[in-house]
Amino acid sequence: MMHEKSVKLIVLCLMLTQCCLSPSATADSSFEDNDFAEFEDFDSDDDFVEIQQSNVGPQLSTAEEIPTLTEKGLKRDHSILEDDDDDGIVEDEDEFFKDEEEFEGFDSPDKEDDDLDQKTEPKLTVAKIPMHFRTHWDSYWMEMLMLAGLMVYFINFFAGKAKNANLANRWFNTHRALLDDNFVLVGDDGKMDNEKNGLIKESESLYTLWCSGRTCCEGMLVELKMIKRQDVVSLMAGLMRPQQDQIHIKIDLTRGVMDTFVFFVGTKRTVTKVFKEYSDLSKYCTQVSKPEIRYNVPNGLSVLSEIPEATSAILENRVIITLTKYQQYIDYLHISDQFSGPVQQEDANTLKQPDTKPILWAGFNLPREGNMEAVKPLLVLIFYLMERLKTYRMSKEGKQKAERNRLRVEEEFLKSTHAARAEAAAQRREEKRKQEKERVMAEDDPEKQRRWEMKEQKRQAKKKAPKMKRLAVKSL
């Protein structure tokens, strides 16, 4: 009996010694009995991590071993679900959340960073630069030519403008004293009071001067038409067709001062041109053959004359001497009492002849070297002709011939406008009858209205009846 108790005591000691020496075995046995016993034995998260590391094994150091660890964790989870007796294993949170099959639609931070880098990565595009592009000045020869052309244009513009202004002022200063002696107002444009009377600039190549306050005329307009030196194109055209600076003097004579005749003398080219352009020359004048023999004019000048008597009186000895001496500066002289401007196109609606006025026009060329004293005697010639026209009177035969010419021109005009005038007269008669009818119908007199209607019917019947001619037959 004592022997059995001692044996039991020895076995019990051995068991206690074994339990103390191998606590892990005891823990394993306890785990078998209680699946959640391991959570009760740990007081902190640190202990949990140490136990897991001891059970799972050493942590993987590289990203390539993570899938293997995850697969092991999944196998253990399936084994725990299948067998309730197996021990539960708690995995690391980071590794647990990296499981793509466990959490669908959840992206890990590393994957998000990779996607962000791929999205924000800039795309580099290489510009295709043409191979012929160069930075040498030879590539801009067209632009340089354009700039050079613009520079030449502006330099020529200002230089030509200044030269034209200089020539015009030089002419005016040379003839200012002569103009003041013959006119009361010099440089008056008739629009406003000019403190500084002088030339009026119409354009860069045209200057005008108006003078008034003299007997025999209503006024004198002087036009200085210069070469368009400010325009490069005009200068280049002038190389093929030479041009000259010109002065045109236009004087409106007082009505009744001069006799009735038309006269023109000028260069052959100018005579041919104006004979077709001006109506008074084309209607009244004829070109004189061999004027150098008949009137002693210098060679190169032609004469258009209406009355030979008047032509001889104008081309007297003093005028012929001036024309011969200054022939190079003379372009034309035009004297007319029937001036109406350029030839008008034939219009059937024109029922009245154009208005006419007596004029004295002259055109002279200015010296190329700019010596305005050389043309000063030509202005004196103009004033002499004004006085000559004031005092000259034609003979009776000359006046009759001039009157016949004017009647002939008037008859030609009436013939050309006969149809238009007849139509206008018929329209006036119809308008008059219409007004008479309205007046009669407005009155409250039936008898008067009846008489007017009978009268109108008779007129219409007479108008429609055929025209017959009555012949008187004498009896034998």
UniProtKB/TrEMBL annotation:
It is found in: Rough endoplasmic reticulum membrane. Residues 100-116 have a biased composition (Acidic residues). GO terms for molecular function: calcium ion binding. It is a single-pass type I membrane protein. Its main location: endoplasmic reticulum. Residues 426-459 have a biased composition (Basic and acidic residues). Residues 460-476 have a biased composition (Basic residues). This is PAT complex subunit CCDC47.
